[in-house]
């Protein structure tokens, strides 16, 4: 610890580094929630820790601010926790945080600037009673990255505020005032239930129960950039799970391939950067398959030129053995993986350049013959999200998969009248002598959930510059944190 202590604002970075020492990936938030509760208690502040492990801290108004509107300041405590080494257990491993005088990052892992920097700012507010502000309600939610569970489970009746400053954005100078809604579809296909006569419908596939005996190989897709499946879906970056599924299907057209294992992705809302599978090929076809994979890599690299220049299709010979599944089952799995739509589905007809509807296959795992695919669907229009959900369900269930709908959250509609937005635009203009960008985004924010719980809801989302969130290349701008903190302090200081 102590690597960020000289950075300004000192309190914010000190508390951010403190949070980095506590593992806090989604679904593993008990320790960080308890830490925040103890932090508030030690400062004599009134707080609530609810059954979802959300934290609400009440800060009384400073002298002279008693008549100002109550302001909710909000962010989430969980992070997308990924590491370059898949053997590292991020549930128990703290972040190895560092900086290069311009950016803060974590060695070999994601940083959790989304949304740890918001929590650090709220801790700085709790810690310094000299900061002038209206009555504040600091709302720190849980499990935002996996479906906004904390916000969905929140009892908002305990909140007095109607205005909300959300600190969960990643582009300084941009005021987000609307976002997409979303839904998650989990499709489970049991390959063990597929009988030979059912698989006989596969054209050109010898549908029998024989498994492949021969050379065991690990084939992987690496070198992809990945990224947030809402904010970066329009960039057309490669999805490792989709690419590897396609590779398996193309290989099955040429060779007798038996599938034994398949895994890829780390989070539903992150475009998979890597995926790997274990296959078995007949000895006489092994060299030809390896050569074909080399050529297939060239084809893929050409397709993703300018989007994922470092794409690699790797092959490692592991030895001899027998595949876990028959050729027919393997082809069936490959077709299942490539059948559902992926990426951008529709662009907005109202806001130029805005993605309206998209989906991302974020995780694929094959275990004991059961293949599971996790899809994150987003749309700016609720009915479009439902239509895409039904399409994904129809496609996957046509293969005999069972589907589960989870993590449904509403879109946040733009409000024509927003006193908070007008106030923030005025302050930003006076501070920086330029206009902020006011926009709606394709990513999901908890504001949509909270808008349904709080009457006369008025919210704006801001945040400092970050790069490549949800990946091991995540970066947080030091200077942007400073400027954003100063802007937040001015918002709190301003009287109406």
Summarize this structure briefly.
The chain is an alpha+beta fold. The protein is built from 12 helices and 23 strands.
CATH architectural label of the largest domain: 3-Layer(aba) Sandwich
Shape, principal axes of CA atoms: elongated
- Tell me the Rg in angstroms: 25 Å
If you consult CATH, what is the topology of the largest domain? Aminopeptidase
The CATH class of the largest domain turns out to be Alpha Beta
- Report the helical percentage: 25-40%
* Distance, first to last CA: 41 Å
Q: How many structural domains does the protein architecture include?
A: 2
SS content category? alpha+beta
Largest sheet: 9 strands, antiparallel
The total count of helices amounts to: 12
Strand content: 25-35%
Average pLDDT reading:
94
Low-confidence stretches: none
Number of strands: 23
CATH H-tier superfamily of the largest domain: Zn peptidases
Protein described:
With 496 residues, the chain is α+β, with helices and mostly antiparallel strands. The chain has 2 domains: 10-180 and 411-493, Aminopeptidase (3-Layer(aba) Sandwich); 182-409, Alpha-Beta Plaits, CATH 3.30.70. Helices cover 29% and strands 29% of the residues. The chain contains 12 helices and 23 strands. The protein has helices at 10-20, 30-42, 113-127, 149-153, 196-199, 240-252, 286-303, 327-339, 382-398, 419-432, 447-451, 478-493; strands at residues 46-49, 55-59, 71-76, 97-99, 103-106, 136-141, 163-166, 174-179, 181-190, 211-222, 227-228, 257-264, 270-271, 275-281, 312-326, 343-347, 355-367, 370-379, 402-409, 437-441, 458-461, 466-467, 475-477. Strands 9, 10, 12, 14, 15, 16, 17, 18 and 19 form a 9-stranded antiparallel sheet that branches. It has a 6-stranded mixed sheet with strand order 1-2-6-3-7-21. It has a 4-stranded antiparallel sheet with strand order 4-5-23-22. β1 (46-49) and β2 (55-59) form a beta hairpin. α1 (10-20) crosses α3 (113-127) and α6 packs across α8. The longest helix has 18 residues, at 286-303. It starts with 9 loop residues before the first helix and ends with a helix. The relative contact order is 0.18.
